[in-house]
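Quick review question:
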């Protein structure tokens, strides 16, 4: 295998290596300099494997960059995304560590912001909020530690807001209507005691 062309991608700050087999690798400056790569250079199997792994990592990192630019993600979400483009666990772990070092990937911050939005803006229950976060790979322990910072009265306040929006013009003296309201609020994860306070 022989290098036929080397170019530089200024946008990604990577070197593009093209081989006589028509394969193309994206590699960092560090790899380029370390192995003194040049046009017409013959690659042995060892160097070829190094370039292949580096290319896999750089491509995975680009996928992660695009994925994280769209909105905040959890580590679990990013791992699942990367698994859809590479089976190389080392590349995946390397990308995860890279974005953690940059503090772009931060599960605790993500959970704090998520909980704040769900409890104070979307008026959801703590139970539903916790369930949603666990689906995103956040540990129950981390979620519980953040939820401890919130007054449990927020559950009642959120039920009041939902109740006034949805049942303002409903006759809840009717037993069936009251039962429907109870089931609805329960399905959103609100606690029995908080629901009873609002429904009576």
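Suggested answer, residue by residue:
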């Amino acid at each position: 295998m022989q290098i036929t062309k080397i170019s530089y991608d200024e946008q990604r700050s990577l070197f593009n290596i093209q081989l006589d087999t028509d394969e193309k690798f994206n590699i960092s400056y560090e790899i380029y300099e370390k192995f003194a790569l040049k046009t017409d250079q013959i690659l042995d199997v060892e160097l070829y494997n190094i370039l292949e792994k580096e290319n896999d990592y750089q491509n995975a990192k680009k996928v992660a960059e695009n994925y994280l630019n769209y909105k905040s993600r959890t580590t679990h979400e990013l791992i699942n995304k990367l698994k859809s483009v590479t089976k190389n666990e080392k590349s995946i772990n390397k990308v995860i560590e890279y974005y953690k070092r940059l503090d772009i990937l931060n599960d605790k911050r993500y959970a704090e912001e998520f909980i704040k939005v769900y409890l104070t803006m979307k008026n959801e229950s703590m139970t539903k909020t916790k369930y949603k976060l666990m689906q995103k790979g956040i540990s129950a322990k981390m979620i519980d530690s953040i939820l401890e910072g919130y007054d449990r009265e927020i559950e009642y306040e959120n039920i009041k807001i939902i109740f006034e929006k949805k049942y303002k013009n409903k006759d809840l003296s009717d037993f069936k209507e009251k039962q429907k309201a109870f089931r609805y609020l329960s399905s959103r994860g609100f606690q029995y005691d908080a629901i009873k306070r609002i429904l009576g």
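Why it works: The two ends are 79 Å apart (CA to CA). The chain has three domains: 2-102, 106-150, 154-199.
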